[in-house]
Each structure stands twice: as C-alpha cells, then as structure tokens.
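Render this sequence as a predicted structure.
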Amino acid sequence: MVVAMEGFQDATSGDLQKIAALLGGANALSRRLTSALDAHELLLHGLPVSAVDHLIGTLVLIGKGDTLEKAVGMSLRTWQRRKDAPSKPLSQEQSGRAWKFAEILAKATDVLGSQAEAERWLELPAIGLDQRCPIDLLGTPAGVELVEDYLQRLEYGVYA
C-alpha cells in the first residue's frame, strides 16, 4: 500500500510540474510548487498576471482572445488592462479557471501526444460531448467535469 501511495504522489507531482511549467514555472509563479496545497495557496492569493501571460504565449493553435474568453473568463480588453497593472494578481475565480485550463491542456497533451494535437482537440466538436467543442465547456464547473471525464475516457480508449 505504501508503494502505491508513493507512486501516486510522484504522478501528482509530475502533473503539478507540467501545469506549473505551462504557467511559467517558478519564475512566473514566484515559488516552486511541490504539492497540491502549494497550488491551493497560490490560487487563493491569485495568479500573477505574468503566469497567465506565459500560458497564453505558449499556445500553438488557439487564438489569444478565444482562450481568454472561454477558458479564463476574461475578455481580451480586460486582459490588456490587467497587463498594465502587473503587480495586482488575478482574482481567485480567474486564477482557478486559468489553472484548470492549464491542467486540462497538460492532460490532453499527455493523452494526445503533443500540445498542438491537444489544442486541436479542444477546438473540435467531440462525439462524446454531444458535438460540443471541449473549450466551449470550460466556462462552468459542470462543463469542466464533462471535459475531464471525456479526456479520461480517451486516455483509456473509451471514445463514446
């Protein structure tokens, strides 16, 4: 049982590092994340603007405006204003949504093999989501849960 828990901790830590990397790593986050509690504390106080800027900057196919609106819950205009005040962190809601988007993008990249494929998958209608695009569902907790469930089914080879 202890061995299984150690393996689980390692997998969680690896996932955490992938998410942190999408958000600019320790430099942008001003700390190294070593546990889910570290992530919780970071989101509680709000992500720095630079972390979300890094996330948006790493996107290969998805447009900046679309991603901000659908995944982070912020218009491009609001984002531009926020960049002018970089010392003020994002709200808890915006931080949580940005984190969840990074988490889903990291998982989809693992499942589909590349970030480009993950982004393409996010923007295409999915049979298992009643022909809805995964990125369009990220605006609500229920939609996020549907996308995560569908991604897990893809991981295990269950497509519908």
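Summary. The two ends are 33 Å apart (CA to CA). The longest helix spans residues 2-22.
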